[in-house]
Amino acid sequence: MQTADNVISMKDKTFIPWVIVLLCFLIGTVWYFVPHPLVVIALSLMPLAILFTLRFPVPIGLMFIVFSFFRLHEALPMLYSLRIPLMLSLATISTLSWHLFISQKIRIYYRPEMIAFLVFFILVFIGIVFAGNRPEAISYFKSTFVKIGIMTPVLAWLLCEVNHFKLTLIMVICGGLVVGFVTMFNKLSGIGLVEETRVTVGRELGSVLGDPNDLALVLLFPFSFAISVLMTKGLSVKFRLLGFIATSTLFSAIMATQSRGGLLGILAVVGIVAFRRVKSKILFFVAGGIATLLLFVMAGISGRKSGGAAEEGLDESAMGRLHAWEAAFGMAVDNPITGVGINNFYFNYYFYSKYWDGLNHAVHSTWFGVLAETGFIGLFAFLTMVIITFKTANTTLKKVTAHNPSRHGRAFSPVILAISEGNLAGVAAFCVSGTFLTQGFTWPLYILIALTAAVAQFVEHKGKNYDD
C-alpha cells in the first residue's frame, strides 16, 4: 500500500518545478538586497529541505512531538539557541497542510477517544473567555495546548503502518534516553538539585524539567514503552537491547527525582507488564507489595526535606497538597461550568486557600487541576476521555494478544504488541501518578490518546501483520 512516506504523488512532482522556479527568483531577489554568500547557500538548500519535509511527514511530526514533549533543546543547552522546535513546528505545519489538503495522503477518521478529546478541547477553549487571568490562559493555550489540539488527531492520522509504529517507539525511547542520561549526569555531578537531593534538568533555563515532579512525569512516559519493548518476544535483539538500556536508565532517573508520583507510575507500568506474564496472582500481589516497599526505600523518600521521615504526622508536602486540593474544589464550586481557566490555578490560589503561607502553590494533582480550571463539566469530560482511552487500549491489547496464527493466518507484528502494551501501561501510569503530578494539560496523555487511536484503527482495519 502506498503511503505518504514511500511515494511522491503526481501532484508533488508537478509542484517541484514550480518550487525550483520560485526559489531561483527568491535567491536572485535576496542577492540583490543582501549580497552575502551564506544567504545564497541557505536558500539553495531550501529545495532539499522542502522535498524532505514533503517526503517524510511521519519523522517530521514525530520529531516535533519529541522536541516539544522532552524539551531536548533545554536538556541540551547547546541546542537552545538553534530554535529547533520553531523550525520543526513550521515544517510540521507545512507538511501536514500539504498532505491533508493537497496531496490528500493523510486520511481523516474519527474514533470515540478522539471525539472525547475534541469535546474537552472545546470546553477548555470556552473556559478562556471566563478565565480569571485571561492573558495567562490565552498565553498557555497559544504556546502549548493549541499545539496539543492540532497534533493529537494529526498524529493518529499519520501513523498507519507497522514501520510508523516502530519509528515511534524508537524515537520516544531515544528521546527519553537523552533526558535520562542528562538527569543521571546532573545527579552524579550535583547540578540543579532542589532540597539538596532531588534532581532536575534545565532549571537555570526555566524549563518545565526544572521541577522534579514534572521531570519524573516526562521520564515515566518513555519508560512504559521501553519496558514493553524489553519484554516483547519476537523483536530484534538490538531493539530489545535498546529497551533494556532505556528501562534501566529511566528507572534510575525517576528514582533520582524522589517523586512519589513517579514511583507510583513505575509501579503501575511494571504492574501492567508483570500481571500479563505472572500466572500466580498471589505471587504477583505479594511480590508487588514487597517491591513497593523496596522502591520507596531505594528512592530515599524518607530523606527528602519535604515529605521525608523527619516530619511528624502528615508531612509538609502532603499537607500542602491537601490545602491545594481544597482550594481547587473551592474554585470549581464558584465556577462549576467553566472553572477558573486553563493555567489559572496558581494565580487564583491566594483567593481560595484557607492556609495562606505567603506563596501561591501548584495543585499537584491532575484530577483536581482539571476540576479547578475547567469546572465539574470539564472534569466529567476529562474523565470520560481517559476512561474511553483506557478501554480502547485494553481492548486493542487483548485483540493483538488473542490473535491465533493457526486460525487466522499470520500473527500481529511484535511491534504492534509492544506499542499496544506500552499504550495500556502508559495510560495506567498516567491515572495512578496523576494523583501527585499535574499533567492534565501537558503532552503525555494526549500523545497516548493519539497512539491508542492509531493502533486501534490499524488493528481493526488492517488486521494481519506486516513485516518489520
Task: Give a quick set of tags describing it.
468 residues, 71% helix, mainly alpha, single chain
Structure description:
It is a single chain. The chain has two domains: about 1-105, no CATH class; about 110-460, no CATH class. The protein starts with 9 loop residues before the first helix and ends in a 7-residue tail after the last helix. It is about 70% helix and about 0% strand. Helix 10 (about 210-230) packs antiparallel against helix 11. It has about 475 residues and is an all-alpha fold. It has helices spanning about 10-35, 35-45, 45-55, 55-70, 70-75, 85-100, 110-130, 135-160, 160-190, 210-230, 235-255, 260-275, 280-300, 315-335, 345-350, 365-400, 405-410, 415-435, 445-460. The chain has 19 helices and no strands. The chain is globular.
The geometry reads as globular
What is the terminal-to-terminal distance? 15 Å
Beta-strand residue fraction: under 5%
Largest sheet: none
DSSP E strands, number:
0
The average pLDDT score comes to: 82
Instruction: List segments where confidence is low: pLDDT < 50 over at least 5 consecutive residues.
Output: 1-8, 307-314, 464-468
Q: Return the string of H and E elements.
A: HHHHHHHHHHHHHHHHHHH
What is the count of distinct domains?
2
Structural class: mainly alpha
Helix content: over 70%
Number of helices: 19
Rg, Å, rounded: 23 Å
